[in-house]
Specification:
CATH class of the largest domain: Alpha Beta
CATH architecture of the largest domain: Alpha-Beta Complex
Strand order of the largest sheet: 1-4-5-6
CATH superfamily of the largest domain: Creatinase/methionine aminopeptidase superfamily
Radius of gyration: 24 Å
Structural class: alpha+beta
Number of helices: 14
């Protein structure tokens, strides 16, 4: 309210969404900003903050006996309002009497949000308030002590889920059987996925949501998954591990390079440092390691400056995390991860870096370097002669089936560095092998 200054703010809560007809709906997920400021995790509610008077109004309806027959008794809105400090409760359809065309709102990410904003404010098209967006980002980017506690809980469950998957993987299983193991763990802890999981032996496909492959002893599994706890806060971790239980040959060497890049990134991450520079530091470790193996040639600084390393590291090093696994991405990825002091790169690889801005104490971030051998990218760039001064295509083609490797953990920025969130899960070669062999 202090940052916005005056006027009114509309915060939309979410409704249930039908999967294939109205009453068969997806599991409800509250809008994260509504949850952050209002704290009520139920559908069909909205709120208006009057900045000038300091009053917040909750709009919604108490359920009727027709609903109670199907859903059981529900808390009264007055009770819910009292729990979050809102004393003024008004019927849902009266909201138009308390807003106007100048009411500030956030960007809609569902078609129904756009329709609601148009209807409530009597406007032809929504025009999100940048002042409001920046005020929300400024608060939500810095996690409170209470939020960090919630993050620790979600990340601990995420780590335990990953360890459960690592212990249960066997040759002959289908990938979807391991997804089922992870899903069972989540349900047993009153939790849900924070995003659609990636669990695959084809880790070179960055967002691989196919789970149909049968695992063999020669495969490496890449599992990128997170748990969202009952509070709504998210974990997001990745582990890559061998089905056989032992890292061997080139894949062992590649894994160690990724781990070295991860450790360097942890070392570099601290308040006052631009995360883009942390990303660049990870790129240099990856380029140096791949040069030693024979994939790259030339000076490491030149390899990274020209972008030849992006043949192997195509995504960004990490992102903000909180109530959303990619925190506040609906408010504008560049507004969350960048600011007036830094512009997002348009260069392949670097343009996928969601977070580049200066780090601050209280930020919660992921660190997730990786190396990926993508046959289609090899063929395209080789045909174009791209980076031929740096990429050893003959050697690379001999190992075009090496797949993908990623290591990811979640951190909170402290006053002088980072602290890993939650109970840690091993990521070194010996530690992972010990988990796999027990």
């Amino acid at each position: 309210m202090n940052q916005v200054g005056s006027g009114k703010i509309l915060l939309l809560g979410n409704t249930t969404i039908g999967m294939n007809y109205k009453d068969n709906y997806y599991k409800f997920r509250q809008d994260s900003t509504f949850l952050y400021y209002i704290g009520i995790n139920l559908p069909d509610m909205n709120a208006v903050i009057d900045v000038d008077s300091g009053e917040t109004i909750l709009f919604g309806n108490d359920v009727s006996i027709d609903h109670i027959v199907w859903m059981g008794d529900q808390p009264k809105l007055a009770e819910l309002g009292a729990q979050c400090g809102i004393s003024k409760i008004i019927e849902a359809d009266k909201i138009t009497e308390h807003v106007n065309k100048d009411t500030r709102h956030l960007p809609p990410y569902r078609a129904e949000h756009e329709a609601q904003i148009r209807s409530y404010l009597s406007i032809e098209k929504s025009a999100p308030s940048k002042e409001l967006i920046l005020a929300v980002i400024a608060q939500r980017n810095i996690k409170s002590t209470e939020e960090i506690k919630c993050m620790d809980e979600a990340v601990t469950l995420t780590a335990q889920m990953h360890e459960t998957v690592m212990r249960n993987a066997k040759a002959g299983m289908k990938e979807y059987e391991l997804v089922a193991v992870a899903s069972q763990f989540a349900w047993q802890h009153n939790a849900r996925w924070s995003f659609t999981p990636i669990l695959t032996k084809d880790g070179q496909t960055l967002h691989n949501h196919n789970y149909h492959n049968t695992l063999s002893k020669d495969d490496m599994i890449l599992f990128d998954g997170g748990i969202e706890g009952p509070t709504g806060y998210s974990g997001d971790m990745t582990r890559t591990f061998p089905v056989s239980g032992k890292f061997e040959g080139l894949r062992k060497d590649i894994y160690q390079i990724v781990l070295d890049a991860y450790l360097k990134s942890v070392e570099l991450s601290k308040p006052g440092v631009y995360y883009r520079d942390v990303h660049a530091g990870a790129c240099k470790v990856i380029a140096s390691g791949l040069k030693t193996l024979g994939f790259l040639k030339g000076a490491v600084d030149d390899i990274v400056k020209e972008g030849a390393h992006t043949m192997f590291f195509q995504h960004g090093l990490g992102h903000m995390i909180g109530l959303d696994v990619h925190d506040m991405e609906n408010l504008g990825e560049n507004l969350v991860g960048y600011d007036d002091t830094i512009e997002r790169s348009k260069m392949f690889g670097y343009r996928s870096l969601r977070l580049g801005r200066e780090l601050q104490a209280g930020n919660c971030i992921t660190i997730e370097p990786g190396i990926y051998i993508i046959p289609q990218l090899i063929d395209m760039w080789k045909a174009e002669g791209k980076y031929s001064d740096f990429i050893n295509y003959d050697f690379l083609n001999k190992h075009r089936d090496a797949g993908g490797t990623r290591i990811e953990d979640d951190f909170v920025l402290t006053t002088n560095g980072v602290r890993q969130l939650g109970e840690p899960l091993v990521n070194d070669i010996v530690g992972v092998e010990n988990v796999r062999m027990t």
